[in-house]
Design goal:
Rossmann fold, about 15% strand, globular
Length: about 230
């Protein structure tokens, strides 16, 4: 009988661009597409965020043509977890074997320096679990150090939202930093797809990262493959 692995989906609590009336937050499909893969095995999961409570969702990510978004956003259990997310400070990492950092621009403000993000990622990774992230969610890994003081992402193959994608969205001036530059600055072996906004993932041991929202499903698929098929 296959083991049952519990997953923690980490979402942002940050909703505002400093210079715009437009709101940001979680990019919904990054959470729904990732979980849709895990749901194929009925894996238990929780949703957490830095502040807890309702996770802000980027309005631009509500795509009615996205049947996976529609399916999970209107699923009562998933919706309740989004609207009553667990504060990261209350999370016991020993309960989880998979941690997924979901993106949306909001994560750039409240993931990188959050001590609970660091604590949870460090514990799960050092205890044999999988760390996954997509898009801006990868910024949660930028400042994570392991118990021996080495950076989690140093000399590791990974990807994340690219500088070109930020420029095409015209938000490069509105955000606290460019993720691609930050990853390279921490000696990560960053790579990206040949074209912006297409599916692209990287795998390095128990670290799976996706470049952008379209990569979330493939990240979920890869996590399952690593956990169950090896």
């Amino acid at each position: 009988m296959d083991p049952i692995y519990r997953s923690l989906i980490v979402c942002t609590s940050h909703a505002d661009f400093p210079g715009r009336s437009q709101k940001t937050g979680l990019w919904l499909s990054e959470a729904t597409h990732f979980y849709d893969e895990l749901s194929s095995r009925n894996l238990p999961y929780d949703i957490a965020s830095p502040k807890g409570g309702a996770v802000p969702i980027d309005e631009k990510s509500f795509d009615r043509r996205d049947t996976t978004n529609e399916k999970w956003y209107h699923n009562p259990a998933f919706r309740q977890k989004l609207e009553q997310s667990t504060p990261l400070s209350d999370v016991d990492p020993s309960a989880y074997q998979i941690v997924f950092f979901s993106g949306g621009h909001g994560a750039l403000w409240d993931f990188p320096d959050n001590p609970d993000v660091h604590r949870i990622a460090r514990y799960v990774y050092e205890n044999g679990g999988m760390i996954a992230a997509v898009g801006h969610g990868v910024c949660g890994l930028v400042n994570v150090t392991l118990s021996d003081g080495t950076p989690l992402i140093g000399n590791r193959q990974l990807t994340g939202f690219s500088n070109m994608e930020e420029k095409l969205l015209r938000v490069a001036e509105e955000i606290p930093f460019l993720l691609e530059d930050a990853l390279k600055g921490k000696n990560a072996l960053y790579s990206k797809g040949l074209l912006p906004f297409v599916t692209y993932i990287e795998m390095d041991e128990r670290l799976v990262t996706g470049q952008n929202p379209l990569s979330a499903r493939k990240v979920g698929r890869k996590v399952l493959e690593e956990m169950y098929e090896k």
